[in-house]
Specification:
It is a single chain. By secondary structure, the chain is an alpha/beta fold. It has three domains: 3-99 and 203-261, Adenylosuccinate Synthetase, Chain A, domain 1 (3-Layer(aba) Sandwich); 103-194, Adenylosuccinate Synthetase, subunit A, domain 2 (Orthogonal Bundle); 266-422, Adenylosuccinate Synthetase, subunit A, domain 3 (Adenylosuccinate Synthetase, Chain A, domain 3). The chain has twelve helices and 20 strands. The protein has helices spanning 16-24, 76-88, 107-120, 132-140, 153-174, 182-196, 203-212, 246-249, 284-293, 311-321, 360-364, 391-404, and strands spanning 3-8, 29-32, 41-45, 48-52, 65-68, 73-74, 96-99, 103-104, 200-201, 217-220, 260-266, 269-271, 305-307, 309-310, 325-329, 339-348, 351-353, 367-374, 408-412, 420-422. The strands form five sheets. A ten-stranded mixed beta sheet has the order 9-7-5-2-10-1-11-15-19-20, sandwiched between helices. A hairpin with a 7-residue loop joins strand 19 (408-412) and strand 20. The protein binds guanosine-5'-diphosphate (GDP), 6-O-phosphoryl inosine monophosphate (IMO) and magnesium ion. Guanosine-5'-diphosphate (GDP) binds next to helix 1 and strand 3.
Length: 424
């Protein structure tokens, strides 16, 4: 593991947190490069169970530097709460470094996220309502407020006032919102500035030095490929680029430094929020996946939609990420099934397609073509070596890896660090 990117291969919640926590033990640096506290990464190790939203999942490994890169957007209140929670549970955040170039999620971004979702009605995206879209929109519009602005109250005020001018009018006149007190809410961020100051650093330089010293760097993607704003199921996506290529942009290190991209993929599929999902199951099998996989959102508690594994989407994820290794998680969730279906193609407008349809309408109407594989009907939670898995489970993994044309790197058979089969 020289410089490796961990990326979600599906619609998020693939178990990236578990994998990063596990590999983080051997990493010198762990880096978040996009997204914000819309992410919910669950880790379970000897120090307890944690739900992380902004702090990189390497934080539990003593000595590992945890970087929040410039591509992340930060709600300072959420970050402060997360740091305080970790510290109160004995996890030191002394090695946390935050990019001064990362943008802030402001109180008005959260309000905009809520009112625009409500206004969309049945056409809503189903966002986490954390202000993600509006904050990235302001970044692109060059009216964003950055972490470094917290360190200069005069500039902070000027920028907030400039940004608020038109926003207050829109919120009031278009969305009928009471905006009294909104600017004071923004000012409250400055009270947190001093406690965040020790964490703010030139993270691009820290990473550059780490690369030159041959240190092991692990990038932790948030969300997943199919939620990518460019490559996902637009407009039902998040507002950042989870794909591996963005690790470079979102951290300030050139792409030549990256050696490996590992895609994390559940042994089935889930999705939270709205948008197309060809293999979604609305039957007993779907309910079994949800119950056995505890498929409820880490961030919002919403029920996750569940379905069979979609190999068309996985092959697409292999392509757009340049995946060099595949991690299959939650294989144990399939323990009880007699038969397991896998989508190997879509039926689109009467034709069979094995590649992701490039036009959204075709994808929205795509129906899955399944192959059926036998289940193993055994508890595999205790298995630690590939050869100790039942033959049907090994066949299932081989089928996925062959069709996706990417070698297996790890298999996860339970939420805890040690519940893992290491292959590479
Ligand atoms: P992330 O957002 O990709 O980090 O994933 P989440 O943490 O949101 O969701 C994954 C959930 O599955 C968490 O509750 C994990 O503890 C759990 N989990 C991860 N790997 C496994 C596994 O192999 N088996 C089972 N049963 N649970 C797992
Ligand atoms: P992790 O990192 C699953 C989904 C939301 C919604 C869409 C847009 O835990 O895998 P946003 O708030 O980002 O504007 O919402 O993206 N979404 C996620 N789904 N896992 C996540 O993160 C997600 N982050 C956002 O449900 O459909
Ligand atoms: Mg999650």
């Amino acid at each position: 593991m020289p410089v490796t990117v961990i990326v979600g291969a599906q619609w998020g919640d693939e178990g990236k947190g578990k994998v990063v926590d596990l590999l983080g033990e051997q990493a010198d640096v762990v880096v978040r490069y996009q997204g914000g506290n819309n992410a919910g990464h669950t880790i379970e190790n000897e120090r307890g169970k944690f739900a992380l939203h902004l702090v990189p999942s390497g934080i539990c490994s003593p000595g590992t530097v945890a970087v929040i890169g410039n591509g992340v957007i930060i709600d300072p209140t959420a970050l402060r709460e997360e740091i305080d929670d970790l510290e109160s549970r004995g996890i030191s955040t002394a090695n946390l470094k935050i990019s001064g170039n990362a943008h802030l999620i402001m109180p008005y971004h959260i309000l905009f996220d809520k009112v625009t979702e409500t206004a969309l009605g049945s056409k809503k995206i189903g966002t986490t309502r954390r202000g993600i879209g509006p904050a990235y929109a302001d970044k692109a519009s060059r009216v964003g407020i950055r972490v470094q602005d917290l360190l200069d109250p005069k500039i902070f005020h000027q920028k907030v006032q400039a940004a608020m001018k038109s926003k207050a009018d829109i919120l009031r006149l278009v969305y009928d919102q009471n905006v009294a007190g909104l600017e004071e809410e923004c000012d409250r961020y400055l009270q947190m500035a001093e406690t965040l100051r020790p964490y703010i650093a030139d993270t691009s330089l820290i990473l550059w030095q780490a690369v030159r010293e041959g240190k092991r760097i692990l990038y932790e993607g948030a969300q997943g490929t199919m939620l990518d704003i460019d490559h996902g199921t637009y407009p039902f996506v998040t507002s950042s680029n989870p794909v591996g290529g963005f690790a470079s942009v979102g951290s300030g290190i050139g792409p030549t430094a990256i050696d490996e991209v590992w895609g994390i993929c559940k042994a089935y599929t889930t999705r939270v929020g709205e948008g197309p999902f060809p293999t979604e199951l609305l039957d007993d099998d779907g309910r079994t996946l949800r119950d056995r996989g505890h498929e409820y959102g880490t961030t919002t508690g919403r029920e996750r939609r569940c379905g069979w594994l979609d190999l068309v989407a996985l092959r697409y994820a292999v392509r757009v990420n340049g995946m060099t290794g595949l991690v299959i998680t939650k294989l144990d969730v399939l323990n009880t099934f007699d038969e397991i279906k896998v989508c190997t193609a879509y039926r689109c407008n009467g034709e069979i397609c094995t590649e992701m349809p490039p036009h959204q309408s075709t994808f929205h109407h795509a129906t899955p073509v399944y192959e059926t594989l036998p289940g193993w009907k055994t508890d595999i939670g205790g298995v630690r070596r590939l050869e100790d898995l039942p033959a049907q489970a090994r066949d299932y993994l081989e089928f996925i890896s062959d069709k996706a044309e990417v070698p297996l790197a790890l298999v996860s058979v339970g939420p805890r660090r040690e519940e893992t089969i290491r292959i590479r």
